[in-house]
Structure formats: C-alpha cells, structure tokens
Write a structure and sequence with these properties.
It is built from 15 helices and five strands. It is an alpha/beta fold and 315 residues long.
C-alpha cells in the first residue's frame, strides 16, 4: 500500500474504527494535529506519501492501523446489555390478551378480575410495567403488605389522578369519577402478599362499584390466596401462568439486547444455567459482556460461559 490515496483512506478507516482524535493521533505518532488536519483535508504541503507511511508505521506499532481489509485488525467492540429491550414471549402475549379482553366492552358481560401467576424471575412484573406504559388506560401499582386499606386507596388514587388524599371517602370519590370518565384497568403486583380483609376485598369492592377491571399479579400461591374468598375467586375471569422462558426466548434476547447471534452450543449452555429464569438470563448477559470486553473477544464462546460466576442457590 504505497499510493497516497490508499494510505489516506486507510488512515480515515483507522480514525473511524478506533474513534481517534487529532490529539490522540499526535500523541501516538509525534506529528502535529495541524499536519493530520491538512492531510485529511487534502491540503498537506509536504511529502504526503512519506508522512502517511510514517504514520502507518507508528499506528501499526500501536496495533491500531486498519488497512484495506486484509489486515487482521478489527474494530474493538464494547458489548453491553440494552436495558430498554423488551422480548415478546408467549407469556407476554397471554398477559396482554387478558388485559385487552378485560378493557374491552366484551368484559362487561362477565367477570372483570384476572390473575397472573408463576415462579419468581419469569418476567411478570416487568411485563406488567410494560403493559401499563404502552396500553392506554392501564395502571400499575406495586402493593406492599404493610399498607392499610387507606394506603392502598391513596396509591390507586395517585396513579389515577396524581393526588393522595388523606381520607378514604375522598379517595373513593376521585377513583369513581375518574373511572366514569374513561374505562381503566388496574394491575396490582405482589398481590399474593396482601390480606383479604384490608386489601383484596376492598379491591373487589372497587371493581364492582367503579367498574374498574383489576389484574392481580403474584407468585404461584396467588390462586390459593384468592380462593380464600369465594366471592372474589368466582369473579376471576382467567388465570395466566407464566411458564419458564424457552431457548428461543434466550436467543432473541441476546440478539436484540446484546446484538449477538449465539451458536447452538453456547445458547444451550446458557439455557441450562438459567433454569427458565429470565432474571438469570439478564444477569448472565451482563456478566458475559463484561468478560468479553475485558478479554477483547468478538463473540460469545463456551470458554466465556465457563468463566461466568455461579448463581447463588435459592433459599
């Protein structure tokens, strides 16, 4: 590569690949920033070929030179997990269908309560928050077991109106008025930890009086909790159970959130580690990205899987 045009194009590729500033080029090669500026803008006054050859030599010594594609130098990739990626799994579709059904006019002819259950780490809460942020009229609260009935009403009132009145009567007045203006659906997360007297029965009352559909979300004991009150359980339209994520879900997550297509053996090794838990998939991906960046690896491998930290046993 002796032609000045080819050398100049290679210099531009090198700068673009490694995001090198003129200051950094000057530090590496010993040439001034103005010399690089002139060369890159086609107004270098000296021997351009000699200048570019010397620059090439210095950048090769630093392991940065990117030639015409034959050189074995690759752009350094900084892997990371995109936290905004949301995977449309079969669990998500089932949850969404329940929400849309309860929001629709069809639900007026039958029960307007629903339940979503499953083991921890299957994505129930993440999905609930996503649906609340993407479907008009859907509200989300994360219920706390130490709340009083008033605390619960105040929180519902807040997600509806931005207000937290002090008294129950005022809360109910606002909730009723807001639901009369437009049909709303409330998702109550961590419902399996709520009491029947202070939380679940008052929610049943809101469902009936305000015509507000409600979806209870909790772990696998949720149906058992709801069955304690016959009047509540008989108003449950459908129970959606979040099952283990699939191998396909894991592959899609890595492709969309990390930008890598995993080989079959790597995907299966990661899937064995996660045991159907989406949180563990995300945790593995974050740890793997750090390892790949440290090792300057360009792809995920079995060797990197073997270096991942072991998960803490449950319980």
């Amino acid at each position: 590569m002796n032609n000045s045009t080819e050398l100049l194009e290679a210099l531009k590729r090198t700068i673009d690949t490694h995001q090198l500033s003129l200051k950094k080029l000057s530090e590496i090669t010993g040439y001034s920033k103005s010399s690089f500026s002139q060369a890159l803008n086609d107004n270098y006054s000296g021997n351009l070929v000699k200048f570019l050859k010397n620059v090439k030599e210095k950048l090769e010594e630093a392991g940065l030179w990117v030639g015409n594609g034959k050189e074995d130098v690759q752009k350094k990739v900084n892997f990371k997990v995109n936290p905004t990626v949301f995977i449309q799994t079969r669990n998500v579709q089932a949850f969404k269908e329940l929400v849309l059904e309860l929001l629709s006019g069809e639900a007026l002819l039958g029960p307007t309560l629903g339940a979503v259950t499953g083991l921890t780490g299957r994505g129930k809460s993440t999905c609930a928050k996503h649906l609340a942020s993407t479907i008009e009229g859907v509200l989300y609260i994360r219920a706390l077991p130490f709340w009083s009935t008033t605390d619960l009403l105040r929180e519902i009132c807040f997600v509806l109106s931005g207000e937290r009145p002090r008294y129950r009567a005022k809360c109910m007045e606002i909730i009723t008025k807001r639901c009369q203006l437009r049909r709303r659906l409330l998702i109550v997360d961590e419902a399996d930890g709520l009491s029947m007297k202070e939380h679940l029965n008052p929610l049943r009352g809101i469902n009936e009086v305000c015509q507000m559909p409600i979806v209870f979300v909790g772990e696998e004991r949720l149906p058992e909790v709801l069955r304690e009150e016959r009047r509540l359980w008989h108003r449950i339209r459908r129970v959606v159970t979040f099952t283990d994520i699939t191998l396909a879900d894991l592959l899609i997550f890595w492709k969309e959130a990390v930008g890598l297509s995993l080989s079959r053996d790597v995907a299966e090794a990661l899937y064995r580690r996660c045991k159907g838990d989406f949180r563990l998939v995300v945790g593995d991906a974050e740890n793997a990205c750090r390892l790949m960046n440290t090792l300057q690896a360009s792809e995920m491998s079995i060797e990197i899987v073997e270096k991942l930290p072991e998960f803490k046993p449950e319980g």
